[in-house]
Amino acid sequence: MKPFRDMRLAEAFRIQLAAPDDFEGWRDAARRMVRADVPPDRITWESPADQGGDLFAHGDRRLPSPPADAPQPRVSRDFLQLAQSVILHSDSTRFSLLYRTLWRLQSRPRLMDDKADADVRAMEDLARQVRRDIRKMRAFVRFRVVEGEEGEHYVAWFEPEHHILRANAGFFVRRFTTMRWSILTPRGTLHWDGEALQEGPPATRADAPSGDPVEALWRKYYASIFNPARLKVGAMLKEMPRKYWKNMPEAALIPELIAGAQAREAQMVKAGEQDFGERPQSLGAIGEAILGCRRCEIGCNGTRAVMGEGPASAALMIVGEQPGDSEEEQGRPFVGPAGRLLRSHLEEAGISDERTYVTNAVKHFKFVPRGKRRLHQNPTAKEIDVCRWWLDGERALVQPRLILALGASAARSLLGKTVSVQKVRGEPHRLEDGSELWITTHPSYLLRLQDHGRAEEEAKFANDLHRVSQRLSELSGAV
Amino acid sequence: MSQLSVLERLEILADAAKYDASCASSGTTKRNSKGGKGIGSTEGMGICHAYAPDGRCISLLKILLTNHCVFDCHYCVNRKSSNTRRARFTPQEVVDLTLSFYRRNYIEGLFLSSGIVKSSSHTMEQLIEVARILREEHDFRGYIHLKTIPEADPELVAQAGLHADRVSINVELPTVAGLTRLAPDKSAPQIEGAMGSLKEAIVEAKDARKRFRHAPKFAPAGQSTQMIVGADAATDADIVGRASTLYDRFRLRRVYYSAFSPIPDASAVLPLKRPPLMREHRLYQSDWLMRFYGYAPHEVQQAAGNDGMLPLDIDPKLAWALRFRGDFPVDVNRAPREKLLRVPGLGVKAVNALIAARRQRRLRLADVGKLTVSLAKVRPFIVTEDWRPLLLTDRADLQSLLVPSAKPTQMELFA
């Protein structure tokens, strides 16, 4: 800086800008002041929105005329770009911050690269807040429809923090070109009629419509898309602070969603309660434990659970669907008509009872009462999956080389998926623990068939058992 | 069945869609509705129109066309054997809903997925029909993300890309074993095959547009996928490895991680405990390290412990730095960009600012402090004009000095 100054430079100037976001006006004035060599502390900047400047400055004094040979101020593109954002900020010191930085740029042309410099940082901070406000306005403006003579008119009420309304208009024009819309704010209003944009005076909330029927759908969507099992209120508040809530129809739901979340999650976890505790370590203990199992509706129907039967080191495990009427009465598996049919076929195939463990995919009897009779009902996939835990326990203890699943329910219990028995029968399936699974029909299916169909199916059934028997002797021979 | 109202069906079908993590609306071509008959614009950056109390951004109308499904995937609330309420929208209903939300500035566009009804190809046709009506009949220029069904006819998958900005196929589980066990109707080779053909279509369309200005666009925002974390036995190291292969092989824009969370009417095959949400967060952090910080996948895996899991109490970048202390401290005034990016607590922006600033003058600790959030975290790993950590990086208890001890850890709610 020059050691000696013109007396005039010791005076103060007040510069009145036309609007709070008047970048052109600021730039013209700033250029002139730099060329006239007026240091930052001699200027008070004002705009209509931030009144009340320095009382001692002479606002009516004419601005100095720079010498004709004074060079144009030097300014980097970074600065200009940042300044256009900074000027939209509501902080009343923004004009002087910009001028001070411009002033310093004259002697330090690379100043903008020094991101740790206090003025550069202050500019970056203000610009960041402005950009955020612009983004939030684009995000949080909510239009409400008013039916007018000229058709639908979309009107929104929004309260921006900074002077961004004009700067943001283009976005809404580009997006909603074919709509008629207005955005009302306390700082001014925008109106688009499909062709031209008009600015209007500040408005109040009462000028905007108070509701829209589609908001009920939107609120429902907002409440449904939220996952109560992963509450992160902090993350929400960081991006959507409370100050915006009052103009967003969905925000009214937030408190009850948060309050209900834990209860909803607890309910889900309880409904899907997985934890049986430790699995019993012997077949006897499993037999005890299933009596008290109430994990699904079948477990709660008051019937007696039926445990598997057979040697604890059986090479073959046969899995049926669930106990039937007779099984439930006697408390033993496969003692009814289907069981008798199975046993006769086993004998014919040369599979001995003593080497076979028989059990069911589901441990309780599911039925509907019909007069004095109890009619068998298929267990649901869910019920099979729940009861699988017990079957897995039996498998872990018995460790059979080969498992024969009778029917689709047993197959699901072992494979974890529903398969078509007719498609997968007659071939081995490898299970995760290394054992081999064969699948065939359930004998009760054979009992329901008549005449020719029954003979055909029984032959296939017998054939499956023969192959299992054969495979079993191969497996035991291999050791 | 009595006909449910639109409101009731929206509730069911939005609820069913919430397990898809993605809601991104970014990265597509710039468009606006000037000169058009319809509405809509995309300007590069996505916009989050609201945030739900789960901290997730709501950018798109994310719904299923129907939650009826012939598949029986255990982790999925819509699986065939689940006892959930079912509903369906017609394509026209989804279009109307999308437009009335868009006009009110609630959303950036639509993310449409569906349960599989009748057949995979039939379902895919329905999804494409929604996109087609929006684009062709309403000249909708907002964002459309279509979930693609890998089992559908490849011809249909190709059509989806012509209307959609983004297409995605979920790999669902990080391991093939997990997929076989938990999604018995899906097949890993089929999923990867479909992702592969999407990649080719995207690359081809890009190439064609370089030569012919009017060549049709194909999914300009690329493809993404999602993996469920914690439903099978995969470790973080497995997941990181899998994600990086997916990025390489299919040029994915994003891999989303979704911590398995309790669902109503859960299958009994699912694990007993859900993984901590923090695990998902650490995986995203490691994803960032690979995509923006120049870490190779094996380096991120080095940040994991011997059990293959990333530490939950510290971020993977700090974990890596603590393991490889020999690489530190890094001189802020001299070190190359790659080295600075490895300093825990320095982000990409801070590194850019430091590099710009150090061309001006020698940086002091206070300068670094102005550009980072936490100087305490950065300090042990850097050298500045006036600072050099005294053997600090050799201290055995360095980790405990850096991990905020007073920070309350969230208790397991239902332990």
TrEMBL record, chain A:
Signal sequence bounds: none
Entry coiled-coil feature ranges: none
Keyword Thylakoid (UniProt): no
Domain Uracil-DNA glycosylase-like, residue spans: 307-466
Pfam families: DUF4130, UDG
Keywords, ordered alphabetically: 4Fe-4S, DNA damage, DNA repair, Hydrolase, Iron, Iron-sulfur, Metal-binding
Transmembrane segments: none
Residue numbers spanned by region Disordered: 42-73
Keyword Repeat attributed: no
Database matches in InterPro entries: DNA_repair_put, DUF4130, UDG_Type-4/5, Ura-DNA_glyco_family4, Uracil-DNA_glycosylase-like, Uracil-DNA_glycosylase-like_sf
Superkingdom in the source lineage: Bacteria
Family assignment from sequence similarity: Belongs to the uracil-DNA glycosylase (UDG) superfamily. Type 4 (UDGa) family.
Protein known as: Type-4 uracil-DNA glycosylase
TrEMBL record, chain B:
Keyword Iron-sulfur: yes
Protein keywords: Iron, Iron-sulfur, Metal-binding, S-adenosyl-L-methionine
Segments forming a coiled coil: none
Transmembrane segments: none
Classification via InterPro entries: Aldolase_TIM (IPR013785), DNA_rSAM_put (IPR023874), Elp3/MiaA/NifB-like_rSAM (IPR006638), Endo/Exo/Phosphatase_dom_1 (IPR051675), rSAM (IPR007197), rSAM_sf (IPR058240), RuvA_2-like (IPR010994)
Domain Radical SAM core per the UniProt entry, residue ranges: 53-299
Cofactor(s) listed in the protein's UniProt record: [4Fe-4S] cluster
Identification of the protein by name: DNA modification/repair radical SAM protein
Organism: Novosphingobium jiangmenense
